[in-house]
Amino acid sequence: MTNSAPQPSPPNQQRGWFTRFLDSVEWLGNLLPHPITLFALFCLFILVASGVAAYFNVSAIDPRDGSTVIEAVSLLNAEGLQRIVTHLVTNFTGFTPLGTVLVALLGVGVAERSGLISAAMRGLVMKAPPRMITLVVVFAGVVSNTAAELGYVVLIPLAAMIFHGLGRHPLAGLAAAFSGVSAGYSANLLIGTVDPLLSGITEAAANIIDPDYTVGAEANWFFMMISTFMIAIMGAFVTDKIVEPKLGQYDPSEATIELDQQTMEKLSSAEKKGLLYAGFSFLLIMALLALTVVPEWGILRHPETNEVAGSPFLKGVVAYIFISFAIPGFVYGRVTRSMKNDRDVIDAMSHSMSTMGMYIVLVFFAAQFVNFFKWTNFGTIFAINGAEFLTQMGLTGPLVFLFFIMICGFVNLMLGSASAQWAITAPIFVPMLMLIGYAPEVIQAAYRIGDSVTNVITPMMSYFGLILAVATRYKGNLGIGTLVAMMLPYSMIFFIGWTALFFIWVFGFGLPVGPGSPTYYG
């Protein structure tokens, strides 16, 4: 007798092929050394390559005057060695992302340690109407990247629990939160720690072409703010219309935990009171900042032009991040009694700094690589030759950004760290695209799209194992291939929708990606 039931062989064959592809990506990614080791190897490679390039007289003609010859400079000689040993420390201490990120995290650490961010996240998601829950979960995931760990550690497991409590598939809740936290990583309503991190690297790369060019932390704020709502809408659509219907009815027997014992901690009266007072303190800070820049007599306007553009207000964004998290965080801590005095604040800041050990080591080697690359003139030579190639190919229009975003997304499959990837690629692509007429701020915005959308489908993402562990609580036999297949629709839709938004925003409407951020470079 033959079985008349539908046969699952085609999906299994497709899953098998897809799993093999993902296994290949994971295998190739595992061949790469640790990002810190990678930067150290790149530094050695630059030294050897500079000697070879100088020996063969590698050079390029400066397109700005058509006569100046830019030659490769060797670091593999006595003069190069002297330059390295005398600038080793200043390369590190002068690397812009180092100080800006650490200062911003001092404030974020207070808000995180006091419980403010966690309570705000839980309050936002758990109070959402059932019909809006998916949209709110994705939205909360996007804004949670201000404190990166909380989105992964708190929101994603919480979303799975809430969906199960509502009688929906818990993996759909997990996927919705994961898409917001990871695939929407660069978007946010407020300027967060990732903004000064990337802008510092972008500025260093832009200085290869224009030594006086500055890129502020607010460079992409407008575009990333509108992207937050776009990502939330797309994430909710994919969850409700694609992922959850494909998952089907949830079978509790597949779980590896006792689902009935799951508890969703609601906000206590003290936490609600703490959020209220923290909110008031935040509004007071915003009002005081507005007084420094909105009136014509604002003390943080530009001292010469009296404009907002180029003013101390815009240059002091990192300071605002610090106080905007530290003060409300302490207020919340005092109300909820999670913080009692200055010692608790200091402990919170110290704890925040203690988690940055790996980042500081990474920055040391990344700073050496960026400066070595600049000293050799490789960045300028590659940029000029690359710009000439793009001109010959006719890829000087906005279409070049489509390929750039795709390249960034592909590289992200192998190198999951946003700062590590941008530190490697920015010295090449920023000068190259500047030479064909695009501003560093726009280039950085495009990079952030590519760097974000493939986070959810690469096993190289640092929290991927944690997400897989949470998912197996609800489906014991779930593997890497199944998880990535579940997240692939988010990656595809986000890539299409976010890229379309970029082209419409920048080239369709001609809107700036941030305050005072130009689209074109002269």
UniProtKB/TrEMBL annotation:
GO biological process, one term: p-aminobenzoyl-glutamate transmembrane transport
Membrane-crossing segments per the record: 36-58, 88-111, 131-159, 171-191, 221-239, 274-293, 313-335, 356-375, 395-415, 422-440, 452-471, 483-507
GO molecular function, one term: secondary active p-aminobenzoyl-glutamate transmembrane transporter activity
Stored Pfam families: ABG_transport (PF03806)
Keyword hit for Nucleus: no
Keyword Ribonucleoprotein part of the UniProt annotation: no
Keywords for this protein: Membrane, Transmembrane, Transmembrane helix
Signal peptide: none
InterPro entries registered for this protein in UniProt: AbgT
Alphabetical list of PANTHER family matching this protein: P-AMINOBENZOYL GLUTAMATE TRANSPORTER, P-AMINOBENZOYL-GLUTAMATE TRANSPORT PROTEIN
Name of the protein this chain belongs to: p-aminobenzoyl-glutamate transporter
Species: Idiomarina xiamenensis 10-D-4
Lineage per the UniProt record: Bacteria, Pseudomonadati, Pseudomonadota, Gammaproteobacteria, Alteromonadales
